[in-house]
Every structure is written in C-alpha cells, then in structure tokens.
C-alpha cells in the first residue's frame, strides 16, 4: 500500500486516525506546539498535561520531578507563552498544561507523536518520515474551542498542518490535500493571515503579540520534538 498523509481536526481526529497511522503530528501553533519547539530546542523536556485541574497538575509534576508551568499571565515565569521559554535552562522538565495541544498529545495511543509548528516544519516532516518507516502519517490541526466547548477550526493550525504536509511530500488524503493547498495559497501572506486570524488577534489583544511573532517564523528550528516516556524531547 502507498504511504499516505492524513489530516483530521482535534481530539476526534486523533481518535479516528491513531490506530491507522504510525505517526501523529500535533499542530497547535498558538501556542502549545510553538512553546514545545522553543523549549526542546534549548535542551528542556516538556511534559504535556490536560488543562484545568491545577492541584492534579502540581501532583503530577511532583511525581515526574518536573516544574509546573505558571499561568500565562504570571509574568516572568515559565508558562505556555513561547516568549517565556526563550531563556529556559537546558535539562529542565516542565509540565505544560494546555487545553488543546497537551490533551491531543496524550491521546496518541500506540502511534509515535511529534509536536509540529511553522518554526520546525522541515525538521518535523523529516523525523515523521523516519519514524513512520513506510507507515501512514497523520497531521492533526488542534483547533480552538468555542465557549460551548465545540471545536473552532483555527486558521493558524490549518496553515501549520498544511506546511508540514507540503514538506512531507507524500500522497495525501483529500483532507490533507486541502490543508496543503491552503498553505501554498497563503504564500508570502502566511504571517499576516495568522496575525489577522481570531487567535492571533486575541493573543495580541491580551498583550502577547511577541508570542504570535515567534509562532509565524517559518523553518527557523531544526528540532523535531518527539513524545517519549511522557515528555517531548529533541530526538
């Protein structure tokens, strides 16, 4: 059978594809996957944890000999803000709760899981092909959540997934082809589209425009974070 790249949205997409593919690439551009890339490229390890229960997260961090990330608005502390991780110390194990990327990362089952973003597109595609060893690959745009909990497809994750699919250069499902075509159509407007998307505007409005700027940098990282023993690490 021909090696194929698939793509479906969110947690339901992970659950639909995890038994059919050898590798899952989780794409949560603003901000989980970008944060993971920045931290692991500096020698840290990122332990994903579902967002919401602070006491459970602290207990899990203590059990894993990890530091629990602070809330994003804590100021000057390690958090889900990619900017806060640009000076992270090599060797730190950081437990990073997030509502989307962390939850999806932990749902991969027996598939190998990578964290992909615009910064590490080529590196992730190369590592995914290596780990897949001829098996199928799924690239999962995480998306966001509406107030009622429903999935909100996010333009930045669609374009990030499309960038990785383009770099994989393999036959695609129809869904993966649409994501790839969207990325190629964005062309030189890619960063401006993400800045102007709902998530980009929200982050900038909350004072995190620097995080958006880090997230729209394309192919500036050679790191392909792989989830091993519950932690994302550089290969």
From TrEMBL:
Keyword Hydrolase applies: yes
Reactions this protein catalyses: (2R)-O-phospho-3-sulfolactate + H2O = (2R)-3-sulfolactate + phosphate
Top enzyme category: hydrolase
SUPFAM superfamilies: ComB-like
Gene3D superfamilies associated with the record: ComB-like
Keywords: Hydrolase, Magnesium
EC number in record: 3.1.3.71
Any GO MF annotation of the entry: 2-phosphosulfolactate phosphatase activity
Cofactor(s) needed by this chain: Mg(2+)
Family (UniProt): Belongs to the ComB family.
The protein's name: Probable 2-phosphosulfolactate phosphatase
Classification lineage: Bacteria, Pseudomonadati, Pseudomonadota, Alphaproteobacteria, Rhodospirillales
């Amino acid at each position: 059978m021909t090696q194929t790249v698939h793509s479906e949205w969110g947690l339901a997409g992970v659950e639909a594809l995890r038994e059919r593919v050898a590798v899952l690439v989780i794409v949560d551009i603003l901000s989980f996957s970008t944060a993971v890339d920045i931290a692991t490229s500096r020698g840290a390890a990122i332990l994903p944890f579902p967002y919401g229960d602070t006491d459970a997260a602290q207990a899990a961090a203590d059990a894993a000999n990890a530091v629990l990330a602070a809330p994003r608005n804590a100021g000057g502390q390690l958090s889900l803000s990619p900017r806060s991780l640009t000076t992270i110390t090599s060797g730190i194990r950081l437990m990073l709760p997030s509502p989307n990327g962390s939850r999806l990362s932990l749902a991969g089952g027996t598939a190998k899981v990578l964290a992909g973003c615009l910064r590490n597109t080529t590196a992730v595609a190369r590592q995914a092909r290596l780990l897949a060893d001829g098996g199928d690959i799924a690239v999962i745009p995480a998306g966001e959540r509406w107030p009622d909990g429903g999935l909100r497809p996010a333009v930045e994750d669609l374009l990030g997934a499309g960038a990785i699919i383009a770099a994989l250069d393999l036959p695609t499902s129809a869904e993966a082809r649409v994501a790839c075509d969207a990325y190629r159509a964005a062309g030189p407007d890619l960063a401006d589209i993400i800045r102007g998307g709902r998530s980009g505007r929200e982050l900038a409005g909350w004072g995190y425009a620097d995080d958006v700027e880090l997230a729209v940098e394309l192919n500036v990282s050679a790191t392909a974070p792989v989830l091993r023993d519950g932690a994302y690490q550089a290969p």
